[in-house]
Amino acid sequence: MRRRPEVTALRNVSFDIRRGETVGLVGESGSGKSTAASCLLRLIEPDSGSIRFDGIDVRGLSRADLRRLRARMQMVFQDPYGSLDPRFSVRELVEEPLLVHGERDKETRRAWALQMLERVGLSAEQAERNAHAFSGGQRQRIAIARALVLQPELVALDEPVTALDVSVQAQVLNLLTSLQQELNLTYLFIVHDLAVAQYLCHRIAVMYLGEIVELADSKELFENPLHPYTVTLLMAAPVPDPDVMEARRTAFQDMPAVGGGRTDQGCPLRQRCPVGRRRPECAATRPVLREVTEGHLAACHFPGEMRAAVAAPLSTTPGSI
Q1: CATH code at 172?
Q2: Which residues contact 260 (CB under 8 A, 6 or more apart)?
């Protein structure tokens, strides 16, 4: 049998999330965003490294201790159609985490579930219906209520609005913002839409092929991107100006759509980067994530050079919600 090549899903991923803030993980499909979140909650066991939550070594916990800790760490999955069991009523779906974590009193579970459903905009009457009777936006509200009913401190949101119509996305994002303020929640927000990331996130980590290549405050990242991949993402975001889009196409017409790849030598982006293709350092040495300016980290030998080399306009508002 032919042996499949080994793929490292994540490599040297390191970041922190401050209490009460939203950190976004941004990148194209396959960049490792969801894997990073799953490792954080130990839904996937990482091969090495450490995970700390409020001073607790998460990787060192026993199964029983991890089960107790998960009441403080919850996840909202991307697909509101596949993440809810159609056999249960909405109330039963929201009650289930309470039952799993030891709440045996039926009336208490019911009261908590109805209260949380009301917070996300669903009535007690709607709570007795099954999930299949609801729209995608309503189902995602149910999934949010289910994640929050245990009163967690950290919530990982895996592209929670990607499967929704644009008209519904803003409603769900506004709901998440209001719940964060009301309940003092901390979010890890996984997203590929830059407009959504800019709207919701305090800080953003850009991922490429399993690595964080740039990390900065949201405003700083959009106004002063340092890594070539971040520039590429921003330039690819649509703006309502044909002249700007044409200028961007011209600037990037010689850049390969694919290239580089997972490698131990050199920068994995170098074949897609106009700067990296010309510089021997980019082929010889793999760049490490380092602080370039205060609070702004980038894994690039020549941070900011690609942005300076591209004459096309780079909008700081890549889209609207």
Answers
A1: 3.40.50.300
A2: 209, 267, 268, 269, 270, 271, 272
How far apart are the C-alpha atoms of 318 and 15, rounded to whole Å? 25
In the block, residue with structure tokens 């009163």: 151
Identity of the residue numbered 319: G
The C-alpha atoms of residue 110 and residue 91 are separated, in whole angstroms, by: 7
- Answer for the pair 108, 95: CB distance below 8 angstroms, yes or no: no
Q: pLDDT 10s digit of each residue in the chain, 321 long?
A: 566 667 778 888 999 999 999 999 999 888 899 999 999 999 999 889 999 999 999 999 999 999 999 999 999 988 877 888 888 899 999 999 999 998 889 999 999 999 999 999 999 889 999 988 888 888 899 999 999 999 999 999 999 888 788 888 888 899 999 999 999 999 999 998 888 899 899 999 999 999 999 999 999 999 999 999 998 888 877 777 777 667 666 666 555 444 445 566 889 888 878 888 888 899 899 999 999 999 999 999 999 887 766 655 555 454 444
Assess whether 120 and 190 both reside in one domain: yes
Domain that holds residue 242: 225-309
CA distance 224 to 231: 9
